[in-house]
Design the sequence.
């Protein structure tokens, strides 16, 4: 289905390299001077050094818009020590996880239904095409209105944002289950429930985890975005407050930390997804 | 006419009589293509032991052998896609190190060697563009070469719309557009069904004769090798230390033009077939 | 048999639209009957009225046409930023992707930037540029650039090796190779990246408007929520959904045309 392949292609584009930081052996051999493990860090360190020099100069000239990475590192340690780092990080990760849970459960359930029943898929197609393009951020004021500030508001937006990709990908995965297996289930006289749980669900597990990987990425991005836009909790908000209090060092510390957390979570999901694919006998 | 190789190099065993067979045009003083002790090592293994032989202009040489004997590697070395670890390949006396437009290469996986986003016309045009042919001259040359391979009616189709045989013809058309004097073909018909293969063999023989091309043709199909070639070179895999990869060189003294029915009943054909099969079987023991 | 199949298709589409109408009917009942407070869920008719007013389409002269201006502002920001992002993304991506050496050094850094939310750059941009439309445009363009850049690098890196050999056999120059093989080969990936970039551009434009108080739909719906004007809020959401739908549909059409060669 053309409608679904774009998301799948976007998925392919969005997939990070299997082992972050590693480089293929063929290229490694050309740079015998620089070992493969070190190379990923050369460019970032160079950029950080450049930034350090530039920010120091700017600060000396009286600008308070930027801070050198060294100051940001100090601010980071400070936040870690006084607990604000962990509290905000915990909020963001926890809310994102809850939102993802809700969105994924609903998305997978509906995806299964629409994937298994042609008629249901047809019935739902126009509604999905109308509701899906609504950007999740457009619902922030609505969620604010309905839930006030806090966990529920952010959770709702994350759930909305993660519901759609999971719905589409699971529906597509179910529709692509080996038809031979479905014929086997008919011959064996399995009930609908048995068919869903014993044949369809295990068959879609590898692609389900690919969808979950995307869902995790979306959940984290949306959570941080909601915090930046409105919600006075979490990492995004901490970064905004730092900027508004003219504390560029702390702001940059948060920016870097958000990057690191996002990277680590995604890398973890990639490993998990690859492991699942191997266990389920699929080429990762 | 089967030249048994001497223990050192096969070249010493090449007698002049092998070249004076009626099927091969008059030979020139320096051989057109010369393999001189070509050795190829990859990843620590010796894929091809020192191999030497000459090819005359206009000759159709088929290379056969079991998998792993290095026949594809030999071809790639001859076209400059891979460099020899020792020895050299000389074309018209000059050493070949890099690919050149005058040496066309026809790949086995034709689907992957065609640009999927260009039509048949566009793919053939690529060769002309690379050679710097001005736009005005391209159209007639493309039409001409497509007519030669019988794809004139499909010029505006994309590769994905063509059958396997047609895609391979499109690739051959692009190679012909290079106006090469040497054509390397790596099992070009291996992925096609038997009927398509037969008709393409005949088309190829005709094209080669019309344009006077020199061809190096790798195949695993012994019958195809005898049917098409003026000479068949048999390589062996893992010859052992100090022994050459090149095990046998056979002249094919069957008159041209050849055809699928009568040639395959020709006594010389049957004789060569038996010899080659026996040799290959022997190699497998 | 043909008739039967045609019928099925027509009926299916009709049924699907019917489903949507059923949902709208549910909305109508829920809001009019007060199942959900009208503070949070305005009635469809109120939403529609707000839309008409805001777009200056209503019969009376009560409309102020604000929504139209806001829509234009948001769409303008989104499209401008997206165009810039696509241009620079493709140029930089091609420059990086065409050389395996450059890729080897740069790719790990790119992989680190990939998961970063584009909106996270807003505080930094505010710090540097202040609260003005240029700042929002910068973040939109910068944030939307990365999917295009990454897609382009991937597209150039994944050229079919056989085609690279053909290029060598034809002795194609580096420039010819990039333009005739690298770029077309990367086109499917680039288009997918541009699709993603469009959604990011819309999101960042809206968030930017919200926090930088810039004229646009983002600010409009925020203010509407704060003033408890639910119908205006919903009107804004409908418009944003429409923008998302239309922009995506247009791009999908363009993709279909440009990638004709993929389908037999």
Sequence:
């Amino acid at each position: 289905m053309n409608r679904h392949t774009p998301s799948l292609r976007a998925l392919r584009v969005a997939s990070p390299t299997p082992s972050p930081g590693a480089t293929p052996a063929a290229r490694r051999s050309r740079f015998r001077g620089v070992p493969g493990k070190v190379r990923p860090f050369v460019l970032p360190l160079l950029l950080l050094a450049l930034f350090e020099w530039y920010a120091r100069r700017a600060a000396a000239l009286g600008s308070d818009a930027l801070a050198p990475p060294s100051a940001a590192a100090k601010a980071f340690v400070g936040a870690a020590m006084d607990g604000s780092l962990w509290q905000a990080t915990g909020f963001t990760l926890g809310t994102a996880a809850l939102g993802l849970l809700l969105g994924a459960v609903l998305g997978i359930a509906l995806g299964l239904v629409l994937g298994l029943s042609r008629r249901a898929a047809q019935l739902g197609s126009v509604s999905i095409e109308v509701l899906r393009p609504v950007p999740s951020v457009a619902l922030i004021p609505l969620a604010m209105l309905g839930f006030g500030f806090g966990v529920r508001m952010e959770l709702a937006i994350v759930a909305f944002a993660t519901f759609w990709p999971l719905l589409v990908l699971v529906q597509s995965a179910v529709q692509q289950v080996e038809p031979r297996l479905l014929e086997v289930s008919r011959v064996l006289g399995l009930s609908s429930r048995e068919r869903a749980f014993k044949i369809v669900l295990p068959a879609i597990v590898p692609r389900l985890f690919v969808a979950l990987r995307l869902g995790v990425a979306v959940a984290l991005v949306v959570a941080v975005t909601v915090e930046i836009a409105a919600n006075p909790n979490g990492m995004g908000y901490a970064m905004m407050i730092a900027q508004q209090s003219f504390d560029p060092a702390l702001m940059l510390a948060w920016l870097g930390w958000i990057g690191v957390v996002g990277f680590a979570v995604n890398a973890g999901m990639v490993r998990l997804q690859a492991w699942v694919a191997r266990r389920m006998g699929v080429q990762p | 006419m089967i030249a048994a190789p001497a223990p050192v190099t096969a070249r010493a065993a090449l007698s002049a009589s092998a070249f004076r067979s009626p099927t091969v045009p008059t030979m020139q003083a320096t051989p057109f293509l010369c393999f001189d002790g070509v050795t190829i090592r990859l990843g620590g293994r010796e894929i091809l032991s020192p191999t030497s032989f000459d090819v005359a202009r206009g000759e159709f040489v088929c290379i056969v052998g079991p998998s792993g004997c290095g026949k594809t590697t030999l071809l790639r070395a001859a076209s400059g896609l891979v460099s020899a670890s020792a020895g050299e390949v000389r074309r018209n006396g000059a050493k070949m190190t890099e690919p050149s437009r005058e040496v066309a290469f026809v790949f086995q996986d034709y689907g992957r060697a065609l640009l999927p986003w260009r039509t048949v016309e566009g793919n053939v045009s690529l060769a002309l563009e690379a050679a710097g042919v001005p736009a005005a001259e391209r159209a007639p040359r493309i039409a001409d070469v497509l007519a030669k391979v019988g794809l004139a009616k499909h010029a505006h189709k994309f590769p994905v719309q063509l059958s396997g045989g047609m895609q391979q013809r499109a690739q051959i058309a692009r190679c012909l557009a290079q106006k090469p004097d040497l054509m390397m073909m790596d099992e070009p018909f291996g992925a096609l069904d038997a009927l398509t293969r037969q008709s393409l063999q005949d088309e190829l023989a005709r094209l080669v004769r019309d344009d006077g091309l020199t061809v190096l043709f790798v195949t695993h199909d012994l019958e195809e090798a005898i049917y098409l070639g003026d000479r068949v070179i048999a390589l062996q895999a893992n010859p052992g230390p100090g022994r050459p990869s090149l095990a046998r060189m056979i002249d094919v003294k069957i008159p041209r033009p050849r055809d699928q029915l009568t040639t395959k009943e020709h006594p010389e054909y049957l004789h060569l077939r038996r010899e080659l099969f026996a040799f290959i079987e022997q190699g497998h023991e | 048999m043909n008739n039967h199949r045609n019928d099925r298709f027509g009926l299916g589409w009709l049924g699907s639209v019917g489903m949507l109408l059923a949902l709208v009917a549910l909305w109508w009942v829920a809001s009019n009957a007060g199942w959900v407070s009208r503070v949070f869920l305005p009635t469809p008719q109120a939403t529609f009225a707000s839309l008409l007013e805001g777009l200056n389409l209503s019969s009376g002269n009560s409309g102020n046409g604000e929504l139209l201006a806001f829509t234009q502002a948001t769409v303008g920001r989104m499209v401008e930023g997206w165009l810039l992002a696509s241009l620079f993304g493709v140029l930089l991506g091609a420059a990086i992707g065409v050389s395996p050496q450059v890729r080897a050094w740069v790719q790990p850094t790119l992989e680190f930037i990939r998961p970063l939310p584009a909106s996270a750059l807003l505080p930094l941009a505010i710090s540097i540029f202040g609260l003005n439309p240029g700042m929002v445009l910068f973040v939109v363009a910068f944030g939307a650039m990365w999917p295009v850049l990454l897609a382009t690098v991937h597209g150039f890196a994944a050229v079919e090796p056989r085609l690279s050999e053909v290029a060598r056999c034809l002795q194609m120059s580096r420039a010819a190779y990039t333009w005739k093989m690298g770029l077309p080969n990367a086109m499917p990936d680039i288009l997918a990246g541009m699709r993603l970039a469009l959604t990011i551009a819309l999101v960042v434009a809206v968030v930017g408007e919200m926090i930088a108080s810039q004229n646009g739909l983002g600010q409009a719906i925020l203010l509407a929520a704060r003033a408890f004007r639910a119908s205006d809020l919903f009107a804004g959401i409908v418009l944003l959904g429409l923008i998302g739908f239309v922009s995506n549909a247009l791009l999908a059409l363009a993709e279909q045309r440009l990638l004709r060669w993929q389908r037999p």
Remarks:
- Residues 1-29 of chain A have pLDDT under 50 and may be disordered.
- DSSP finds twelve helices and no strands in chain A.
